[in-house]
Each structure stands twice: as C-alpha cells, then as structure tokens.
Amino acid sequence: MQTGAPEEHRQQTGIPPDARTNLPGFFNGLSGRLLALTVVFVMLAEVLIFVPSVAAMRLRWLQDRLAAAASAGIVIDGLQAELPEQVQADALIATGARAIVIRKDGTSRLVAASEVPGEVDAHYEVSGGYSLRAVGDALDTLVFGGGRLVRVFGPMDESGNATIEVVMPDDALRRAMLTYSRNVFIISLIISLSTAGLIYLSINRLMIRPVRRLTNNMQAFAADPENPALVMKPECGLDEVAIAGQHLAAMQTELQRTLRQQKSLAELGLAVSKINHDMRNILASAQLMSDRLVDVDDPLVRNFAPKLLRTIDRAVGYTSEVLSYGQAGEAEPKRRIFPLAELVREVRDMLGLDPTAGIDFRIDIDPGLEIDADSEQMFRIVNNLCRNAHQALSSPGTDPALLKRITVTAERRGTVVAVSVDDTGPGMPDKARENLFRAFRGGVRSGGTGLGLAIARELVLAHGGTIALVEKSSPGTEFRLEIPDRPVSMEDYRQRKL
Predict the structure, then answer these.
(1) Which CATH number does the domain housing residue 485 bear?
(2) Rounded CA separation 199/195 (Å)
(3) For residue 108, which phi and psi values (nearest 5 degrees)?
(4) End of a domain among 138, 163, 190?
C-alpha cells in the first residue's frame, strides 16, 4: 500500500523507477552554451565595429602618404626647379610611391618618379572623407589587394588650387591593414573572453546554479514523491527563478497531500469492501425478519414497519453501489416527478430527533410542490445536509440557551426547484469554508470526514444543479441547492399540448 501511489505516479508521468538523468557537462550544458554564445556575439559586435574602423585606418594611411608627397611638391612648386635625383629618390622612399605628380592651373608637373608607371589598376580620391565607398575600397584592398598599382590623389593644400597625385603599389597598404586587423582581432578576442567570463560568472550565479538546484530537486522528488524532506526549500527573492522555486515547493506540497489522500482512499476502499461484504449479509437477514413485521396486528408496528422496510431496502441498495464512489462516480440519476415535502418528512423521521435535545425541525414546503429528480439520490442530498445541521446543534459545546432549529424550505422558480437547509447552530469555521465540498478536508466537527458535503455536491451536479453555502448575517449555516427539471424534447412538448 505504501509504494502503490509513487509507482502509479511514475507510470503516469513516464518516469521509470530509480531513473535519474545525469546533468550535462560544462560544454553541453547551459554554462558552456552561454559562454560560447557570449564570445560569438561579442566577436560579431567587434566585426561590425572593425569594418568602418579599418576603412578609416586606410584613409588615414593614404592621407599620410599624400601629405608627405605634398610637402615635397610645395617646395618644388615654390622653387620652380627640378629636384636632384637623390632628393627625388628620398621623396619616393618616404611616400612609398613610384611617381609624384602636381596638377595646377590645368598643367601637370612630375615631381619625382623612379620609373615610368605602367597601367594603373585603381584610382582613389582621399579628399571626400569617410563614406560607404571607402568601406568597399578597404575590403577590396584587404581581400584582393597586393601586387596592384593604384593612383591616389587629393588636394595639395587648403586652398584647393592644386592637386597632388601619387602612383604607388598597394602592397605596403595591404600589409599595414593586415597588421591592423590582426591587432584588432587579438584585442577583440581578449575583450570578448573577458566580457563572456564576467557575464558567465554573473549569469551562473543568478540563473544557472538556481536552475540546476531546481532540476536536482525535481529529479529527487520524482524518484520519491512521498518523502517530505525532498520538498523544495525555495530561496527568498522576487526574480523569476525564485518565484519558480516557490511555486514548485507549493506544487510539491499539494502533490504530497494528494498522494496521501489517494492512499487514504485506497485503504478506505479496501476496508469498505470488506465491511460491505459482511454488511450485506447482515442486512439481508434483517430484511427477511422485517418482512414478518407486516403480518403483526399491532397498529404501532404497522405504522413503523413500512418505514423500516424502506430504510433497510435503501441500505441494501447503498451497499450494492458503495464502491462506485471510488471508481466511476455516482450512478446516473433515475429521475421521476415526486412530492418533495414527503421526502423531507422521511428525512426528519430518519434523523431520530431526541425530544429532550430541544431541536425544532421545520418543513416550509408546499405539499403540492413536485421535483423532477432521482428520489433516492435526493434523499441522500437532503439527509446529508440535515444530518450535518443536527450534529452541529447537538455538539457538546453548543450554548444551552441557543434556539435550536432546522428549517427546510423549497420553492419552484420556473423550471428550477430551489431547496434551502438552514440551521441556527454555531456556524461553519473558516477552515471548513476553505475546503468546502472537499472529501477528508472539509469536515467541521472533530473526527468528521467531509464526505457528506462532497457526496451531496456530486449528486447535485449529476442532476445538472448547483449547491452553495449562503452568507447570512444571523448565526448558523445555510445551504441552498437548485435542481432544474429535465429538458423537454419538442416531440414531448407537442404531445403535451395535444
């Protein structure tokens, strides 16, 4: 009995016995994935930063070469003389160019040249500043550059009257850009690893460790859901992980309560089955003996014999259906139309009210009021409610000066019959209100199971009705239930009209 509930729970959830999934390693778990994604995203951000920065670096490099060539051009332009070959060679070495040309007033002047330049592969103007074209030129040089001859030109001074041109190979430019790219990559890698490490440490402490704690607890609890020591002990906090832990703890507590209730129901079902077997034999014997009372000439016996026979017959019927409550629920109501007042009087007689207890049982129902319901199930509903009221008025702690009264009223409202069971007892405590209509948790008195209200609610719902506790200003407890008539088909309605 003790291992049945956990085993059934494992079968329902698909968890094999003694199964425990090992948590993934660092690289397969959330920690490794978080670290890798952080590095990738930081490197991606660095790439987006690198593209415009390498374009700006290329422009600066070309502008420096043009500035060096312009310095020599300004001197030559002022002297109006040709530079010596050694000075020309120095200027070409300083700029890394093969030829330097000044264009002014529609004329061109060769400042220095090491050889006659061949066909130029590309033309770059550096006066326009940074632009998307500069980004494209930088990527082109970085990927396809080297071994190409390029022409670079720009203004010679701020006046813009003269232009300086340099024809040069792009090998030195590409080497400078590759060196710059390598340095940026190393710095970006260091930044990304540092950032990823800090983010990992922070997220691991805030999320990964709590999530692993939740996972370990869920695995341990799934293996032994009845162990109270395995209920999650949530951490205090207002973040999502802390709230998830709090809800998990509440769910595990409720699940353990449900498992204990199922265990109690299973044990109760076994006990009731054993008692039911012997009870049926005893009632069968009592039924045989009570049949003989009908033949007795005593008027008092003749008056009580039919009620006794109905009571025994009802008890025999209960024993035949006693197991249905724990299996498939109550039987489908066998509805018929009958007077309600007569049924309530039978309930009153069944209570066996002690005249010395001073309990007044009042029936405020029109004798002609009829209800469309299962008479046996309706008897059980009213009997459970009235018996609870009788027990509340008969409890030892009841004030002797208290007016003890049970009132059953009923009225028809269209196709619905509303029945009210009211008492003047001490009322229902808060704990019972919180667990109203819940078996084994909604009991009012000490030792009560709360099954009476649970059974009454199930039977009312089977009739398509409702039952509720009525809030009242005066002391006591009042339950009101509403039972609708059966829906009438159009064919039956037409036959009634005819």
Answers:
(1) 3.30.565.10
(2) 6
(3) -120, 140
(4) 190
